[in-house]
Design goal:
heterodimer, A: 141 residues, alpha+beta, VC0802-like, 2 domains, 32% helix, globular, B: 432 residues, alpha/beta, Rossmann fold, GMP Synthetase, Chain A, domain 3, 9-stranded mixed sheet, 24% strand
Amino acid sequence: MIKQVSVFLENKVGRLENILEVLYQYDINLRSISVAETTDYGIIRLILDKPELAIEKLKEAGFMVKETRVLALEISDITGSMLSVIKELSANDISVEYTYSSLPLHGNNVIIIIRVDDNEKAVEVLKESKNAKLLNIEELV
Amino acid sequence: MYWNEKVETMSHEELIYIQNERLKDMVHRLYYNVPFYRSKFQNLGLEPEDIKGIEDLSKLPFTTKQDLRDNYPYGIFASPLSEIVRIHASSGTTGKPTVVGYTKKDINTWSELSARAFVAADADRNSVIQIAYGYGLFTGGLGLHYGAEKLCASVIPISTGNTQRQIMLMKDLKTSLIACTPSYAIYLADSIKEQGISLEELNLKSGIFGAEPWPENMRKEIEKKLNITAHDIYGLSEVMGPGVAIECNYKCGMHIWEDHFIPEIVDPNTLEPLPYGTLGELVFTTITKEGMPLLRYRTRDLSILYNETCKCGRTHIRMERIKGRSDDMLIIRGVNIFPSQIENALLEIGEVEPHYQLIITRDGTLDNLEIKVEVTEHLFSDKISGLESLQKNIARKMESALQLSAKITLVEPNSIPRFEGKSKRVIDKRNI
C-alpha cells in the first residue's frame, strides 16, 4: 500500500496552480495525479515522492488535505492485463472505488493506482498474483 | 436538594395566585412612579385596574433595550436613589451603557435566587465556591457571590483572568464548585491538563456556566474534561443578573423562578405570544423588583418554554438553553430562520466550530437559500460519493431544522470571511 494525498478544491481559477507551486517549492516530485470533479468542487489525488512533507506544507498553505491508503500495482503493458487484475478483485468481492495510472518504472510495464473498499483483503489477494506486482512507495519513486 | 423547598416545589395554582397579586401591585407601582410607563399606558388607553392578573399580561406594553437607552441613566428606575444600594451597567456596543439599579430588597431577592441556583447545582454550606466571573459593573461576579454567601458556602471571589492562580487555588483550597463562562471552563480544563495536574488532585464536583450560549456537546466536553456535572445558568442584568433561571440535575431546561418573574415566548415579528414548546423570543416581566422593574422586557434571546413538572420536584417553568438571538432573524419564503439553527444543525453533524455563510437570493418571487459550509478534516472524504453524501446529510439536517430546503455548497477551509458578529454570516441579496 502507498500513501495518496487528496486535496479538496473549489472550482476556481488558479487553485491547482497554488498546489503545484507548494510542491515545487519543497522539491516534491509528482508521480501521478488524478482529478475527480463536480460542478462546484473537485478532489485532486496525488501520488508523491514525499507524501508526509507534502501534507504538512499543503496544510500550512491552507488546503484541506487527507491521506488515503491506495494500492500501486505494476502490470504488463499488454492487452487484458488490467482486466485480469480486476477479475481477481471481483472474484474476492472487493469493490474498486476509483483507479488511475501512474508513470511507468520500466519500459514494458505500467503502474495503476487502485482505491478499493478493503485494502487488507486486496493485499492478501494480490500479493500472490501472477498478473500484478504490489509496490511500496520506495519502489515507486 | 432545595434551598427553599416550599417555594421551589409550590403547586402551579399557588404560583399563579402569587403572580396575579404581585403583577397587579407592580403595574400600579409603575403607573404611579415611572412616567415612562405611565405614558405607555396612556398611549394604549390602559388603566392599572385593567390588569386583573396574568391573563391580562398580553395587554401590557413591551419594554426594549432601546427604551432603556432612551431613558439613560435613571429614567426607568421606580425607586428614588435614596433607596438604591447598587448600580450595575452592561457595556453598550453603541455608545452609552445600560444602567440598572437595585434596592436592598432587590439584592436580597437576587441572593436568594442565586442560592437556589447553587443548591440546584449540588452545592451546600460545606462547598468551596470559586467565582471566576468578572466582579464589578458586570452582574456575574457579585450576583453569584451574594448567593454563595447566603448559602454559607466558602466563597473565593477570584474574578476573571490569571489562569495559573485560578488553578493553584482550585487545587490548594479544594474548590468544589466553579462558576465561569463555559468557554473559560474549557480553557481551564486544558490548562490543568497541560500543567500535568490530574483530576484526582482536585475536589471539583460541579460547575455553573453561563453568560454566553453553549451547545450540548460543549457541556459533554466540560463534564468529561473536568469530571464534574455542568449546569447552565441564565440571567441578564436588565431583569436581575445571573440566577433568573438554573438547570437542575435533570438538565432538561432551566427553571425560571416564577415567584419573581413571569416569562413569555413571543413571535419576534408579530409579538404575539406563542404556546409552550415553540421557539421564539423570551420576554420577562419582573413582579417583585423595586429598583428597576420591567414589563414584558424583550430579551432578544431565543428559547422555548416547557411547563410540564420536572422530575426534580421543582414546579417552576423551564426554558430551553438559549438558541440564538432574535436580532439575527431572517424571513425566507415566509419561514422564520435564525442562523443559530443552522449552527446547531452543523454541530449535530459533529462540527466543533462550524463556519458557514448564508446567501439568500430571490428568483422572481421565490427566495433561495444557499448555505456554504467549510469542509473540515473531520468531514473531508477523498471520494466524491463521500462528499456528496455529506452534502445530502447536511441538506437533510437543515431541512428538518429549518422546514425549508437549502442548497448546500462545500467550500475550502478559511474561504468564508471571519467576522466578530454572527449577523455578518448572512448575505441577503434580495432587494426587498
